[in-house]
Amino acid sequence: MDRFDRIARAVEQAAGSAYATAAAVLVVVAWAATGPVFGWSDTWQLVINTGTTIVTFLMVFLIQSTQSRDTRALHLKVDELIRVTGPARNRLILAEEAGQADLDAMRSELQERLRLLLLMISLTKLSRTPAAAAKLAVECPSAAMRRRISSGNPTVGFIPQLDRLRHGFNFLCTN
């Protein structure tokens, strides 16, 4: 299999080059130019149809092989980054093995965390008037954050959490 991988990588790199594109264009132009010589016959048309069908068939498997290998390598790199990042959630390491429902749940959870993160950042930038705090309290879905915002001192409890932002936004789960 290692030999196949090396050959597939070499063909992939060659097929993706400008020279390969120029060669393909040259073949089509040469084929079209020979049309009058062969009287635009069915055999003349069959030559290009057969050639392109064979090349397309083989390239589909080659592309799938190289994409699968690249995807596996990318997952390994991302998994390593998740593993070495302290507050990251390690359950995301095998996310590519999860079903669609699990992926949708993870995506929703991450979107909610991002929304809360943006809300916290907005809160620190807004003037800390009671009206602004009340407005944010209504928009904020987290009960703990609503209590902090409604308490009259919206920054209570936020500064340590914002400091933890530098290490990842996993803190949004822990209220």
Return the domain count: 2
Beta-strand percentage?
A: under 5%
Tell me the Rg in angstroms.
Answer: 29 Å
Query: What is the terminal-to-terminal distance?
Result: 51 Å
Give the SSE string: HHHHHHH
Structural class: mainly alpha
> Number of helical runs?
7
Task: Note down, in words, how this protein is organized.
Helix content is 71%, strand content 0%. The protein is mostly helical and 175 residues long. The chain has two domains: 2-84; 100-172, no CATH class. The longest helix has 43 residues, at 42-84.
Sum up the structure in keywords.
175 residues; mainly alpha
Short description:
This protein is mostly helical.
List the helices and strands and how they pair.
Elements: H1 2-15, H2 18-33, H3 42-84, H4 100-125, H5 130-139, H6 143-150, H7 158-164
